[in-house]
Write a structure and sequence with these properties.
Maf protein; 41% helix; 8 helices; alpha/beta
Length: 192
C-alpha cells in the first residue's frame, strides 16, 4: 500500500522507507505558527496542539487526494507545560537550549491518518529527555556542528546525529523522538 506523507521532513520519510512503507510526499504547508498562537490563546496543552496540527496537516492534503491514505505528523517539546517550537534563528536555538539545560522535558509526537478529508486514525506518544547541565560554551559548540537546514527543519537537537550527547537520560521510543512513532503506524496500516 502506498500512502502520502503530508510533511517535508526528510527524517520522517527515511523512517517510513526503513520500515518498508511506500510513500509519496506532499507537504501540507499549514501555517503552524498561526495555529499554535491561536491554540495557546485558548490554553491548549502542548499535547493537544501536536494532535491538532497532525490532523490539520493530514486532512488538508487528504482533501486534495480522494481515496488516498494520508499521514500527517507533528512534534513539539513540552517543558513543564510550555510549548517549545522549532527555532527560527541561531540565537533562538541557543535560547531554547539554555532553557532546556539541566531539565527534563517531554518530546511529543502525534500522527494522524486521514482519508477523503477526515481523520480515520490517530496516535500520540511522548518521550522524556533529561538534558545534561552544560555550560554556555558547550551549547555554542554543539550548535556550530548543526547546519542551518537541519536546525530550522528538525529543531534544536537531532537525536539521530550528535544530539544524543546533550542528554543524561532518554526514556522512550527513538522513532517517536525523531518525529514518527512508526511501530503504531505499521500496526494500523497492516490492519486496513
Amino acid at each position: 500500500m502506498k500512502i502520502i506523507l503530508a510533511s517535508k521532513s526528510g527524517v520522517r520519510r527515511e523512517i517510513l522507507r526503513k520500515n518498508k512503507i511506500d510513500c509519496d510526499v506532499e507537504p501540507s504547508n499549514v501555517d503552524e505558527d498561526e495555529v499554535k498562537i491561536s491554540m495557546i490563546n485558548e490554553s491548549a496543552t502542548p499535547t493537544l496542539i501536536s494532535k491538532n496540527l497532525a490532523e490539520l496537516k493530514a486532512n488538508k492534503v487528504s482533501n486534495k487526494n480522494p481515496d488516498k491514505i494520508v499521514l500527517g505528523a507533528d512534534s513539539v517539546i513540552d517543558l513543564e507545560g510550555e510549548l517549545i517550537s522549532k527555532p527560527k534563528s541561531r540565537q533562538e536555538a541557543f535560547e531554547i537550549l539554555k532553557k532546556l539545560n539541566g531539565k527534563r522535558h517531554q518530546l511529543i509526537s502525534s500522527v494522524c491518518i486521514s482519508k477523503n478529508g477526515s481523520m480515520i486514525w490517530n496516535y500520540t506518544d511522548a518521550s522524556s529527555l533529561t538534558m545534561k547541565e552544560l555550560n554556555l560554551d558547550e551549547i555554542k559548540s554543539y550548535l556550530k556542528k548543526v547546519d542551518d537546514k537541519k536546525l530550522y527543519a528538525y529543531g534544536v537537537y537531532q537525536i539521530e546525529e550528535g544530539g544524543r550527547d546533550l542528554f543524561s537520560k532518554i526514556e522512550g521510543d527513538e522513532d517517536t523522538i525523531m518525529g514518527l512513532p512508526v511501530k503504531k503506524i505499521k500496526e494500523y496500516l497492516n490492519n486496513i
